[in-house]
Amino acid sequence: MAGTDEGDPLALDRQLCFSLYTASRALTGLYREILADLELTYPQYLVMLVLWEQGTLPVKELGRALNLDTGTLSPLLRRMEGAGLLTRRRGPEDERIVHVSVTEEGSRLRDRAGPVPAQILCATGLPPERLGELRTLLDQVTRSVTAATEGTATRTDRGTDT
């Protein structure tokens, strides 16, 4: 077995993907633990955050906000509707459009969820003023990688080699 070379670009500890992966797993696990008291899964919590912030939305817009496709979102919404947290209604002007709204029970849950962001921030060990900086950097990574991936897909679709 070769020794670890700090200059080795293939060393696990030098991989951005691994740092993001382990941080994501740790945060998601913490959310899972905290959200258990609210009887919400992490994806359900994200749905509720969008609906609490924006109000009634078509499923398509909700999916866009969460970066989830309809096939992933629909079963999630069905379970949440069964739990009494939201309703799904077909649009009167176009029955193909399904609107999602928070119920009274879902609205009451917002108050109980209030402490969650502070609990997460505390667990990160980051000072609050650094949180915005971290989000900005992660958003930049997401935008850049998405653009690069879309560019690669476009070149591949055209059969262009670069």
UniProtKB/TrEMBL annotation:
It comes from the Bacteria. Residues 13-143 form the HTH marR-type domain. The keyword DNA-binding applies. It is found in: Cytoplasm. GO terms for molecular function: DNA binding. Transmembrane segments: none annotated. Keywords: DNA-binding. This is DNA-binding MarR family transcriptional regulator.
